[in-house]
Design goal:
This protein has 190 residues and is an all-alpha fold. It has helices spanning 2-20, 25-34, 41-57, 62-73, 80-91, 100-120, 125-138, 150-160, 165-179, 183-189.
Length: 190
């Protein structure tokens, strides 16, 4: 399709501009991140790749890109597929020990999205898996063991009884990681 080829070329050009010339950085980034919601699956997945490349070239932009993706994730009337791609992108962010505040913020994003999704509709098991993967990946980098609140722990225990085996296992892995000697959680876990 010619239209998709043109959109792909425009996204590549936008990436080149953003990567090489930081002028109008916020506008260019918003254009790219907005394309996560593109109806064409190949283009939406290419945007995830492009954003990953951008962060490899400019790792200091991690928080800016993540906040733009967060803005798209919580935007009203966005497709479930675009939300899934957004969660997948956030899952793939490379974290280090210096990113403890950022990792805690990512966990907050995942749980806020989960709570909002439960209020609106049933959450797809792929989406649940993506959210739990993100929390499992971010949790070890948080400085505080209290990055996951009691309400979030209660939510995780509910997920253990999910119909999807993979979601249950991921929830149990996270609960085991979070328990870390807390008797209240350990007693409930076992």
């Amino acid at each position: 399709d010619n239209e998709v080829a043109i959109r792909t070329k425009l996204c590549n050009l936008t990436f080149q501009l953003l990567n090489e010339k930081p002028e109008k950085e916020q506008e260019l980034l918003a254009i790219l991140v907005n394309k996560i919601g593109d109806p064409d699956n190949k283009l939406a997945s290419k945007i995830i790749y492009i954003l990953t490349q951008l962060l490899q070239n400019h790792p200091h932009m991690k928080k800016v890109v993540a906040s733009e993706v967060e803005r798209v994730l919580f935007r009203p009337n966005i497709s479930e597929r675009a939300q899934y791609y957004s969660i997948c992108f956030l899952n793939q962010l490379q974290l280090s020990t210096e990113d403890s505040v950022f990792a805690a913020h990512l966990i907050e994003i995942y749980f806020n999205f989960f709570k909002e999704s439960i209020e609106n509709t049933n959450v797809d098991s792929r989406m649940l898996g993506g959210l739990l993967t993100g929390v499992n990946r971010a949790y070890p980098y948080t400085a505080s063991q209290d990055a996951i609140t009691k309400d979030n722990i209660d939510t995780l225990f509910k997920l253990v009884y999910s119909d999807n085996f993979n979601v249950s296992v991921q929830a149990l892995m996270l609960l085991y990681q979070v328990s870390g000697g807390k008797t209240e959680i350990c007693n409930r876990y076992y």
